[in-house]
């Protein structure tokens, strides 16, 4: 086996022949070229350990040849053997990138020793680079192992997702990343659970179909990593914003794949634990989740909502008068009744919602991705589901328990479990004493409820109704991202101040539904985000304003005055009553409200 492959370049045939014979006797495999152009062609065909070249040659001299070689093959060793012996020429040759400079005539021993030294130095350099690479790989494996220990140290999905995404970003040099994970082992949906860096969370899909991912998903300057376990896709990572603006290459893909093997196992374990928790942390009677498990899920939901700037809501449901049922039913019968109650409530909920048992006859519900208006919609859906199920059909009116429901939303009503719990309790007490039931107007039409409430009207400032109308409309302009229901019925005409407030909505796209209930010509709302309906559809022509959304709820109803004088009015912040009036009117007017 030859010591090395050498390319000898010289325009003089006798010197090429001399070098070829000398180097062959020393154990080298030699190829020759008559000038720089021929030498470059040879190097494009084959690789050489050494290049020996003259400086003065036709077509392309040695200096230009060295420049071309170093541009294409920076690590190539080049030895100059020339008859030009001035110092400046030697210095220029070394600047070109030559490894050594020898003068003609050259001694055999000098050439052999020089080539041997160059090859030994290159061999040591390669061994050093290999050792360094092995050390880097070892350190990388050790670092990955340490991060894997961190992944396997937690089974809670949210912190695990954050750590997983952090590990991928560190391994690949990505500054940004997004992680989707299966809802649970049986789901076909991947949910967004973690984001990092410069990601615009609002622009990312909340859910992905694990079986039908978009064809262009991950296109562009990003790296997509599939997390599989047991042959199933359980997660998906998309990394972007590579450090220094570089593209993700094969080394980053290889590192990401190693990290994926460990992350997949850790996420699979977390999903298994969550599935076990959901099966084991249940009340044995009603099959609802336990309160301890529920509060742990809510705390995780707070972390997620805080990270992604989202909202969620909680419901508190209580059967008021359960003691009467306990006297009528045996313990097994009462257990079956409560189990049926939870079942009917669960049917009214979405698949992502969660119901837990706080105590006998008291239940809490978590509504992810839900605001105050969405919670109110679900409250009414629960009431309707229980009415349709005829759970109380066999009970006499005196035996039937009263269903109390309250709601609180994050972050409007609190950002901690305890504070949200206090808000739920306070509103449940309000629901217990609401005028809605004390006046017995739940089954009344909107106009019938208005007539009953006007019995409680009292004199007040004549400017108050218009001020309240303006405040409700201006609140929508101030908080256009909040959903809500605002109904304004000015009466026979639209006051100038109300027109001004309506004008301020023009050009906005508020999420609240603003409805003007009036037969007056409403030029002020033409082209604006306001729905106009006739007062005839409301069943009454009395002036009123109803505001329901995040924060306080409010309603004002004024007695109708034929001569325009000030007249008594009724107003309230009774949330249960305002909610009932808003949704009763919403249905009568045909205004759609979604979750």
Describe the structure in your own words.
It is a single chain. With 595 residues, the chain is an alpha/beta fold. The chain has four domains: 5-123, Rossmann fold; 157-279, GAF domain (Beta-Lactamase, 2-Layer Sandwich), CATH 3.30.450.40; 282-433, Alpha-Beta Plaits (2-Layer Sandwich); 446-589, Endonuclease, Chain A (2-Layer Sandwich), CATH 3.30.870.10. The protein contains 18 helices and 21 strands. The protein has helices at residues 13-25, 36-45, 62-72, 87-96, 108-152, 157-172, 250-280, 291-308, 322-328, 331-348, 372-389, 417-432, 435-438, 446-454, 464-478, 496-503, 535-538, 575-589; strands at 5-9, 29-33, 50-53, 77-82, 100-103, 174-182, 189-196, 207-209, 222-229, 232-242, 289-290, 312-320, 354-359, 362-368, 402-410, 484-489, 513-517, 530-533, 544-549, 554-558, 569-572. The longest helix has 45 residues, at 108-152. The radius of gyration is 40 Å and the shape is elongated.
Number of helices: 18
Q: Spans of 5+ residues with little confidence (pLDDT < 50)?
A: 136-142
Structural class: alpha/beta
Domains counted in the coordinates: how many?
4
Q: What's the CATH topology label of the largest domain?
A: Alpha-Beta Plaits
Query: Would you count the extended β strands for me?
Result: 21
Give the name of the CATH architecture of the largest domain: 2-Layer Sandwich
Full CATH superfamily name of the largest domain: Reverse transcriptase/Diguanylate cyclase domain
Kindly provide the name of the CATH class of the largest domain.
Alpha Beta
First-to-last CA distance? 79 Å
Largest beta-sheet characterization: 6 strands, mixed
Outline: elongated
- Could you estimate the helical fraction of the residues in percent? 40-55%
Radius of gyration: 40 Å
Q: How much of the polypeptide forms β-strand, as a percent range? A: 15-25%
What would the average pLDDT be, to the nearest integer? 83
Strand neighbour order, sheet with most strands: 18-17-16-19-20-21
